[in-house]
Every structure is written in C-alpha cells, then in structure tokens.
Amino acid sequence: MDWLLNANTTSEKFLVMFAAIALFVLVMGAVLLFVEKLPRAPRWVLVAAFLGPALLGLAFGLVYPALSTVKASFYNGDGSKFVGMENYATAFTQGEFQQVLFNTIAWTLFVPLVSTGVGLTYAVLVDKSRIEKFAKTLMFLPMSISMVGAGIIWKFMYEYRAIIEGVPADKQPAQIGLLNQVLIWMGLEPQQFLLNGPWNNMFLMVVMIWIQSGFAMTILSAAIKAIPEDTNEAARLDGVGGIKLFWYITIPSVRPALVVVVTTIAMGTLKVFDIVRTMTGGNFGTQVIANEFYTQSFRQFNFGLGAALAVLLFVFIIPLVVYNVFQMRKSEEIR
C-alpha cells in the first residue's frame, strides 16, 4: 500500500485518483443513506452530515497544507533547523529577490488596469453594433486558450533570428517571428523581445492582457447593457454625448463592475506562473513570485525559502480577495 501515499508512476497516480473518487462516492452514499434512515433527525445532525465531509476535505486539502507551508517557511532548506525570519529577510533584502517582488508588483498594477481599459473600450465600441456578437467572440477567444498555450503562441510571435555580420540583407536568415518580420518590412533591425530587460517584462505582460481583456469585456459589456436607457436619453437631451456620455454616465454606472473586474484580474495576475515559465523560464530579469517559488522548492530544493515566497504570495492576495468579496456584496445590495 506504499503506492497510496507515495505514488510515483503514472499508473499509481491513476489508482490514487480512482481510489479518491471511490472514497468520495462511498462517503456521500453513506451520508445520503444515513439521512434517509433518519427522517426526523435534528437539524444540526443534517447540517453536520452534509457539511462535515466537505469541511474535513477542506481541512485536509487546504488548511493543513497552508499551516505546513507557514511552518516550513521558518526552517532552513531541508527543514532540519529553525531559522526564524531568515527566509523572509532573504526575500526582502537580497537583490535578486527584490527584483522578483518588483516584477510581481509591476504585473499586478499594469495588467489589470490595461486589460480593464481595453475591455471597457472594446465593450463600448461594439455595443449595439451590427457585428457585436462576432466582435465579442473574437475578443473572448483567447480566454479559451490555456496560459501555456498562449505563451507558446506569443513566443513564436517574438521569435528572433540573429543577423549574420558581413552577409547581404537578402541572404540573412528569414525571421519567422511576426513582430520581427514587421520590423524588417519597416526597414528596422529585428529585436530580441524576450531577452532585453526591462522591456521584456512588458512583452510578457502583453500575453496576459491579451487573455484577460476578453474577460473584462464580457463583464463590462453586461454592466453597460444594464444601464437604464432612460438615463442615456436624459443625458442626451441635456446635450451630453460622445466622450462626455462615456465619462459622466457610463463610467459611474459600471463602477462596481469595474472594481470587481480589476481586482479579479489582479488576483489572477499575482499568481502568474505559466506564461513566465513557458516563455523565459524566469531568466533575463523576468522572474515573478510564483515561478521563483517553483524554482526554489522543486529545482533548488530550498523548501524553506520556497515556502516563505508562497506565504508572501498568500499575504499579498488576501487584501484583494477581501476587497473583491466586499465589492460583490455591495453590488448585490444595489441590485
């Protein structure tokens, strides 16, 4: 039965998955049978019967790992020695980790604002147009692509072929990256978009913006359609139109949705891992917290520092979650 606790091969992992599914079915079947046999059971028994398995699952799969990670963050790399706040001091004082924190903050500030701005502008422009459904479908398509898939697509977009000195222009290697080919058509030299910092971070963020703009457009388009037509008509009768209508009527009306969209994208961006891992591996000054956590924990086996970075990521995301929930409740109250 060692495979049940330490599954290493693919077949053992599948067996663990099937065992977990069978255990879930057995537990829920037992709960339903128990409730059916006790139709007059006290209310607290029913509540405990249905919530108990879920709470135990959360405690085992979420609470226990979280507490274990917090504990590990106060120990050295192999967990054999208590080092106090040393791992956190390393994360905040050493230059390479300060760069990681700075990059993560830049992602969290830039991506949500630009994605929301693009999504809002697009939603306003295509609203009630003849091609509204088609245009929205095109904008939403990147949301159906995984982060890894999007990273691979854009890595080809940024592909660079080195120029060979002393070779005529017509004999140079063909640029297969779209952006570099466009630069050549404009008479400019191709660029190494993913190698040259700090702008390579911006080119990585473009991928996240490309994905998240569709999400922002969908939510904000629904919010715009919810604005009462009487409000827009009254504004037009007062001579308000165009940019002023957008600024003084549309923006205030969709403000709760704007806040929810910005904070939701910020939470997703704070955890960005796949794009950086796929396109640069965190090299050339593009490292972020989630990828650094993976590098420290599973490639350098410094579990203490990796756990400290995971805890920092958790702490950073808490205010966004709380604010997001608060805004969603506020929006529900307004409705």
TrEMBL record:
It is a multi-pass membrane protein. One of its GO terms (biological process) is transmembrane transport. Residues 101-324 form the ABC transmembrane type-1 domain. It is found in: Cell membrane. CDD domains: TM_PBP2. Pfam families: BPD_transp_1. Belongs to the binding-protein-dependent transport system permease family. This is Sugar ABC transporter permease. It comes from Jonesiaceae bacterium BS-20.
